[in-house]
Amino acid sequence: MRAEGAAGLSEEAAGKETLVARARSRLWRGRWILGAASLALLATSAMTGGPVFAALAGMLFVTAVTVFLPAGGESGRTAEGPALRTAGFSTADLIGAVRDPVIVVDQQTSVVETNAAARSAFLLLEPGTLLSLRFRSPEMQRLLQHLSEAGFEGGEAEYLERVPIERLYRVFASPAGSSGLRVLVFRDRSETRRIERMRADFVANASHEMRTPLASIAGFIETLRGSARNDPAARDSFLQIMQNQTDRMARLIDDLLSLSRLEMKPLIDPDSRVDLVAVVNDVIGALAPLALDCEVAVTREFALDQAPVAGSRDELFQVFENLLQNACKYGRSGASAVVSIAEAGSAPSREFQVTVTDFGPGIAEEHIPRLTERFYRVDTNGSQKGTGLGLSIVKHILTRHNGYLSIVSELGKGSAFTVHLPAA
Amino acid sequence: MQASHIVRSYDDDLKFLANRIAAMGGHAERMVDDSIRALVNMDQVLARKVIADDAVLDEGQREIDERAILIIARRQPLAGDLRAIIGAIRIAADIERIGDLGKNIAKRVVAVSETRQPLRLFRGIEALAELTLTQLKDVLDSFATQSVDRLGLVRDRDARIDAMFTSLFRELLTYMMEDPRNITACTHLLFCAKNIERIGDHATNIAETVFYAVTGTLMPAERPKHDKSPDVVAAPKGS
Predict the structure, then answer these.
(1) ipTM here
(2) N or C: which end of chain A has fewer CB within 10 A?
(3) Which of B26, B134, B163 lies at the smallest CB-CB distance from A138?
């Protein structure tokens, strides 16, 4: 009981103390204005010849008002002030410690502060950028409109970005105290979205692409049971075709899974480092047996010893593996392939270019822009060689790495596939 | 548009224009995306939504035109401000056209989905639309940040859109020659593809306007013409 009483007393004392302290701090903050006001009052009384005590009474009144009248926006300033002084850290440190993208804006939705997660997720977010110009989807526009009103109390919206990589965020916006600033936190929901889509895509693509080889196998089985039952030569050739078809189906499933897995992966970490020269060397080494099989001689033309980029080694390995595999498979007639690494441009847009050139039959002009499309095949009737997914996997990986693929080809001379990746 | 004026309401006027353009742009992006999804999934409900959505863009363009004229009359803007205001009028017109083209795609959904179409017909359209939407997004992002360093890629991408359209043109022609029953759907798809290609052109126009508004000079170099579809003829089989 006694302890409680003491606690109550000291709380009361603390309350009084803060009152006094607050009055003192208010007077201190208003010292210049108060000083100026008193001077002005004295001066007017002196000039007009009015009584000095009236001027003094005026001064007292103003001072009393300063001490007791509640000041607007004071709580916000005092709340931030001591935290900054004592702990010695800034709001930038605070939001920098948050893993989700955080953007602080003023009431006109102009960017005040961003954290690293926001800068790497959304490019072009310099302070001063109007957020309403940057996040244009109708849902976000509604939220931002709402946010710029005076009595905003918080809200949320979905933000869907479909190109270049599909991303979905749940955006939470709240006012930051009475400072007039608003804080937006982006929670990444892309994964759930991608799982949904992956399932739908997989079913659609797999069912569609499997139907052709399955129909052909079913047809051959029927023939083998019927008219070709006693014809060993036909049986052998049919079985060979059936085996090719099942191989193709297996490859198709592998590629579809690989593409789906890629679509599931989070964004590339901008701080990771991979050396392209090392990756390309590894790929050439790994594909040496295939090159030997296809009787293609692979030459290196490296202009650099090192080519560091931000990215995932495994994914980039897959890019060059697919390109070199194609060069071996389709460039068989040229008997050679060249892999070159060079750099182009100057900082900040310096990039590395890895080119895989084959000297095969080349690709007709009308096919070139469509090569990276899913299931697009130049050779529409036979389609024995590929699944039509290799280059779309390459394109997808490069998009994730902020890079792109360019293709140059001439019929009868060969093709060159160039990977462009921004230098780290 | 970031530099401030002595009269605060002048800044507000310019901000209003930029905000409305961005909102219109976002709306157009969504319309194009929705129209392609409606086409590929044969979703007539979504198609009707796209058609109804177009009214918002018409209204937006009217609003921007009116406000821009008022600003010119009241403030007699100079240099960068004048360019920004004239730019806003032009960009609004381009975005409104993009909306119309999206709406036109949505209108064709009913005709295309009368008969079940094979998936392969749509893959090319989807890829073309993806490239065009990337173009549109990049351009509108440049408008948002008033930065021109990424606009260099725009020309290149426009060339790729044109080349892709030409290739799609050939492909659709092949399907029509294979089977006359494909002609109805393929003709509609051909128009859809052309609309998407036009959307790419409007995006490139916006890029040129942004470049001019920001730098005061015209975007360098003539745009090369890559749409070779005028030369494409239905070649006899086996050639």
Answers:
(1) 0.83
(2) N
(3) B26
